[in-house]
Amino acid sequence: MWLYLAALVGLYFLRRWYRERQTVDNLTEKYVFITGCDSGFGNQLARQLDARGLRVLAACLTSKGAEQLERVSSERLRTTILDVSCMESVAAATEWVKGCVGNKGLWGLVNNAGIGHPAVPNEWMTKEDFVKELNVNLIGLIDVTLHMLPLVKKARGRVVNVASILGRISFYGGGYCPSKYGVEAFSDSLRRELLPFGVKIAIVEPGYFRTSMTNTQSCLDNLEQLWVITPQEVKDSYGQTYFDNLYKTLKETLTTKCCTDLFLVTDCMEHALISHYPRTRYSGGWDAQFFYIPLSYLPTALVDLVLTWSCPKPAQAV
């Protein structure tokens, strides 16, 4: 019996491996629009797809980022400026994409743009701190998607949304984790709605990587700035020792636990765009695949224990 079961499991994975190796035709004629291409995953993916021969439409937040990307890419790659949190900017980028793709439609939309600050205990922040992250990471992503969907449907293409392991487990406070949970929910509903139109939706859930979002000094400065303006009553309940230990832990985490191999994520994005049978979800990075994603399936009490056992203790903890 066990032999038959092992054989069935083996056949399943062999079939999946074979199917996932099949790529779509005419890649050199397909357009892909990527947000957040100034640096990090977006920049890497834009160059990666360009080298493969796809027609990349790269959206950058700054002119400097766009110019730097153009210098290291082929003439096929084109750039535009986009602030996903600004409706007028999204509308302008949509018109630009329409002019680029013509009657071909848009084969791929990669929603990669995002911010990670502030990321501190919820009680240290204001509503505006949450809104800032949600506007970029979730509302901006939704806005770009809704604008681009007619073009994607025309090509019967794909939408690739970058979520995070923090869309499965909330490690810390702030708008980042709620925004990524929202990306997961939006992507799930979108996938089911667009299935009849031949449009595929993929979610990429990276672990910890060395990008501008995890710049050590920037994250530490942000932590310190928010602590300074936190109401005194709240500061008293946590205590200076709590802040010092949190600062030390964050510095150690960002310095030692962020992977530098961005291909572990951009290869997932590329597969979602060019495979004839893309996956619904991709776990980017060894930490995501073998620790965080499995952890998310454990009982909540056990997850809480794992994630809090080494956390600093507030001064007024009971």
Question: What can you tell me about this protein's structure?
Answer:
The protein is an alpha/beta fold and 318 residues long. Helices cover 54% and strands 11% of the residues. It has helices at 2-20, 40-52, 63-71, 87-101, 127-155, 176-194, 216-229, 232-238, 240-256, 263-274, 286-295, 300-308, and strands at residues 31-34, 55-60, 78-81, 108-111, 158-162, 200-206, 281-284. The protein has a seven-stranded parallel beta sheet, with helices on both faces. Strand 5 (158-162), helix 6 and strand 6 (200-206) form a beta-alpha-beta unit. The longest helix has 29 residues, at 127-155. The protein is globular. The termini are far apart.
Class computed from helices, strands and strand pairing: alpha/beta
What is the 3D shape?
globular
Per DSSP, the total helix count is: 12
Helix content: 40-55%
Which residues sit in consecutive blocks of at least 5 with pLDDT less than 50? none
